[in-house]
Design brief:
The chain has 15 helices and 13 strands. The protein has a 7-stranded parallel sheet, with helices on both faces. The chain has a 4-stranded antiparallel sheet with strand order 8-9-10-11, with helices on both faces. A hairpin with a 5-residue loop joins strand 10 and strand 11. Helix 1 crosses helix 2 and helix 14 packs across helix 15.
């Protein structure tokens, strides 16, 4: 297969370009169906004229259908797309990239989804789906799953359904306090969505994302808070995002004093309220209630989910000190950055 693909790349490069384009169209339709042509063209960055030609071809091949509400995949379209995912992975060398990253950072497992989530909305949805599949494989009889906030975690919640749990016991808990962020991407909201979609239970942690040490100590004495914190620190699965330092600091309305420390430390990444420089060294930590970096050593499974070329530097920074049991789920653009970083170091 590899030899055939290499020959095809040399002799028929245009064919591979067309294959990639049609794969992206089918993938986008599956994730947004039923979807109109104008919206699809905008999400793919194509003109309506170019898209019209492509979808007419796909319809002629009985891979999609035009309905009153928009385009949908046919059964044949679903089947072809599933086969294409494996083929595109081979063409792009995705599996080889996964193994290289696994060795480079000493990770337990790496999953790369195709594309760049900075450019294509469906890629972030694929990150969420990949995260859900990863968690599902690691469920035991009784589970506590700790989840951080963020847009990628929202996609993971939306990808869950009642088949996710397969009769296993699951309690979803927020990995940390999050009051102060956009409600939609707060961990409390995400675990509630996960519980609703899977028919399981959840707990909430009503605590500000940032507070003074004195206020933190006082709040941690509250029985309800102590109960949830105990559950959080007992989580057997932790799933979290990785953020760009300054983006995360601004999103959380970080004080001017803390912002100065973050900038002076040349932080590039953030996770669990810790800020890391390019070498992966913690340069600042905000006082927050919830999971701490040291707590990750107790979790059986730690799943980091982040993608997009813009996050390449942040992911590289965090992974240098990540627990060895970490599973990384990322996209092709971020993975390409990480491998380039490896070659230059």
């Amino acid at each position: 297969m590899r030899t055939f693909i290499d020959i095809q790349k040399r002799l028929l490069p245009d064919l591979l370009h067309v294959l990639q384009k049609r794969y992206e169209i089918l993938q986008s339709i599956r994730l947004a169906q039923p979807v109109g042509r104008r919206l699809l063209a905008q999400s793919l960055g194509l003109t309506e004229r170019v898209l019209r030609s492509e979808v007419e071809f796909l319809k002629d091949q009985a891979l999609i259908d035009f309905q009153s509400k928009g385009m949908v995949l046919t059964i044949d379209g679903e089947s072809v797309l599933d086969g294409l995912q494996e083929l595109m992975g081979e063409i792009k060398g995705i599996h080889a990239m996964e193994e290289q990253l696994k060795m480079r950072y000493g990770l337990d497992e790496v999953t790369i989804v195709q594309g760049d989530s900075d450019q294509l909305p469906w890629v972030k949805k694929e990150l969420g789906t990949a995260a859900v599949n990863c968690i599902k494989k690691r469920l035991i009889a009784q589970n506590i799953i700790a989840v951080t906030g963020g847009t990628t975690m929202v996609e993971a919640a939306q990808a869950m359904n009642e088949q996710f749990s397969e009769e296993k016991g699951i309690i979803f808990v927020p990995a940390r306090g999050g009051i102060g962020e956009d409600v939609h991407i707060q961990a409390n909201s995400i675990v509630a969505q996960m519980a609703m979609n899977t028919g399981r239970t959840h707990r909430v942690l009503y605590a500000p994302d940032q507070m003074s040490p004195k206020a933190q100590q006082s709040l941690m004495k509250e029985p309800a808070i102590k109960e949830v914190l105990t559950m959080i620190k007992s989580a057997n699965i932790v799933i979290h995002g990785i953020g760009e330092a300054l983006v995360m600091a601004k999103r959380r309305n970080t004080s001017e004093e803390d912002m100065q420390k973050i900038m002076q430390g040349q932080a590039v990444a953030e996770a669990f309220g810790y800020y890391f420089d390019e070498a992966g060294t913690v340069v600042h930590k905000i006082a927050t209630i919830g999971l701490q970096l040291n707590d990750l050593k107790q979790a059986h499974e730690v799943i980091a989910v982040a993608g997009g070329a813009s996050k390449g530097k942040a992911i590289h920074s965090y992974l240098q000190g990540a627990p060895k049991a970490t599973v990384l789920i990322t996209d092709e653009a971020a993975a390409t950055y990480l491998l380039r970083e490896q070659m230059s170091s």
